[in-house]
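Hey Z.,

So I finally got round to the uridine-5'-diphosphate thing we talked about over coffee. Here's the setup:
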Amino acid sequence: MAEKPVLFIVIPCYNEQEALPITAGRLTALTDDMIAREIIDPASRIVLVNDGSRDDTWKVIADLHAADPRFEGVKLAHNVGHMNALWAGMTLSAERCDCVITIDADLQDDVNAMYGFLEEYQKGADVVYGVRSSRRTDTVFKRTTAQGFYKLMGKLGVNMVYNHADYRLLSRRALQALLSFGEVNMFLRGMVPMLGFNTAKVYYERGERVAGESKYPLKKMIAFAMEGITSLSNKPIRYVLLLGALCALLGLVMAVYVIVSLARGKTVAGWASLMMSIWLLGGLQLMALGLIGEYVGKIYMETKRRPKFILEEHLK
Ligand code: UDP
Ligand code: MG
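And the result:
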């Protein structure tokens, strides 16, 4: 571990012209203080990733960079979304830093938690999660949907840190391990816990956006949740298989009922054969779909080219 780590703070920015000047000011003060107190190396940087903004975000970033070389600007050719913007920033930082912290441009996450992050890093943590101790400033809607989402993901077998968004510190080796994941469909919150290593949590209160408005309207939130589920879990496919098996089973019960009714002569012509085919065939079809889905799911996971292991130490 470096005495004073070179810290790169990576910030995705999409239409953040209102928030950025405030954010930049706060981060300048914060990193000034950290450098003065010898918590971080003066070579530390703040990497602002412009995710294809349609406002003057890039101009703001370019001005910040011109005024203070501590600010780096990364301009993506078009809007690729929060996750990919983070990925871009992390990729461009990996070779030059000891650790990286990702945080949103709106500073809803308390920047002072970074002191805690770095303390944990110095104590040997490779992954430090920023966890919201309360969601008082979120709307009731956002809070309930978000919490429901975490619960659902847990049920689907995805290991996620409760109330942790994308505010986290990664040591260089954790970052490199993360970047070795080959998947295009990615959901960082679900991937980071797969890394292993020493982890720690730092709690903080989540505030309001400093300026501008949320870049996550309901439509994007739903897409985000779908991405999380489908990029990490094959379980929905298994439920289809299960449902198919259940239908086929019900078909058997129906078969008994149909045969009994037939024997008692209580049926119209054609009813018995129709009933049997609907239930049995329907169930079998669903089962077949689920089974094919299992293989498709396997192929899907295979195409992600995830590392089979992540090395932490090798004594030789
Ligand atoms: N963001 C981005 N690309 C997008 C949408 C959002 O880089 O397509 C960034 C945005 O600038 C912010 C972060 O992702 O830094 C989180 O967005 P926001 O704060 O609007 O989300 P919320 O806190 O409302 O969930
Ligand atoms: Mg926000």
